[in-house]
Design brief:
With 127 residues, this protein is mainly α. It contains five helices and two strands. The radius of gyration is 30 Å and the shape is elongated. The N and C termini lie far apart (66 Å). The chain crosses the membrane at residues 21-38, 44-65.
Length: 127
């Protein structure tokens, strides 16, 4: 493949970060400044300490996204597709469940005894 075409297909990056990741960093800085200077009800040292951590959450998310091949929106869309899928079953015994019976090994006196019939719906609804 021609290297010029390869560069056309990649996302725009500044300093190894995409524009969305830079937006996360700027958002983190704005949150840190807003929390530390205007919203924090604590003293100066606690406000500074908490502003670094609160503002660092979006920055850390941007850094992790640049280091790993993880797409949050794609992950959330896959979770929503899975949740809406037909493979998600409702709780309960269902109409086609047959169940099984545990019986004691036959002895000479009980060799003619049959396995008891189980009503799965009654077992499921009993508390």
């Amino acid at each position: 493949m021609n290297s010029a075409y390869k560069h056309l297909e990649t996302k725009l990056k500044l300093g190894e970060l995409t524009l969305g990741q830079w937006a996360g960093i700027v958002f983190g800085l704005v949150v840190a400044i807003g929390w530390g200077m205007y919203l924090s009800p604590f003293g100066a040292y606690v406000s500074l300490f908490s502003a670094v951590y609160v503002g660092g959450i979006p920055v850390m998310a941007a850094w992790v996204a640049s280091q790993a091949d993880f797409d949050l929106w794609q992950h959330l869309a896959a979770a929503a597709r899975w949740r809406r899928g037909s493979h998600v079953f409702l709780p309960g015994a269902g109409s086609s469940a047959t169940g099984y019976a545990v019986v004691v090994a036959p002895t000479r006196a009980a060799s003619n005894a049959a396995a008891p019939d189980l009503d799965l719906e009654a077992l499921w609804n009993s508390h």
